[in-house]
Amino acid sequence: MQPKPDRAAWLKGGNSNCNIGFGGPAEGQHRFVLLGAPGVGKGTQAELLSDRFHICPLSTGDIFRASTALAARCECCPAMLRALDYMKAGALVPDETVLALIRERAKCLRCNGGFLLDGFPRTIAQAEALEEILAENGVKLDAVLSYELPLEKIVARLGGRRSCPQCKKVYHIESMPPKKAGVCDACGVALFQRDDDRPEAIRVRMQAYEKSTTPLTNFYRGKGLLISIEAEGTPAAIFNRSLEAIQSFAKA
Ligand code: AMP
Q1: Share of the chain above pLDDT 90, in %
Q2: Whole-model pTM?
Q3: Using CA positions, which residue lies closest to atom 8 of ligand 1?
Q4: Mean pLDDT of all residues in the chain?
Q5: Which of 26, 140, 147, 202 can bridge 36 by disulfide, Cβ–Cβ 3.0-4.6 Å?
């Protein structure tokens, strides 16, 4: 089995190189963008799709998370420190900062292995800039997969989520409950609910998503790149639906 790329070029930027280089032909590789509100299960689908198509999941949120530990020790990157403040507050990082990070990582976009962008673009300005960056690098998007679920179901999904403070395992009070209510199976400690998973916070996150990111579905629909996928059911069912949708889109 092919090892997973460590995404060093993406996560660390600069001159970092990934543990596996893709030397294959550019033809036949996949270049996707994933869209979806918090709680639709987009992260899980990104993992499944990247395994199936052997493409790197490139998440902008992961860049910020990877930099959190570094930034704590390093005062030399003020733009990143400011970006992390936005992230901690649950707000979107300004376009300018996000785009600077993407431009520094353009080699990941022209990688012959293809890519799966997750969490970027999030605004129309980012989508327009992405078009420019891709054109400068001589590559095109194949499709934009948009995972869709009604708001009430998202609130129920995120609202039932509980995490273990020790091993970080995530449960759901209905669909994946621990053996003993409120207690981690492995560690035996009390589970907690993330502040931003409380119903009021979820609604605020959803409003931010609808305002900034929903217009992207129209943007990509207009370009004939949008594939809408119902994000209802188990991760496996959603994954099968994604594969079928990608196949029919490729044939059309
Ligand atoms: P995610 O893991 O995609 O939910 O991202 C976590 C956080 O990182 C978001 O809440 C934002 O603060 C920030 N972030 C990630 N990607 C972007 C983006 N494309 N534009 C602005 N902020 C972003």
Answers
A1: 46
A2: 0.85
A3: 61
A4: 87
A5: 147
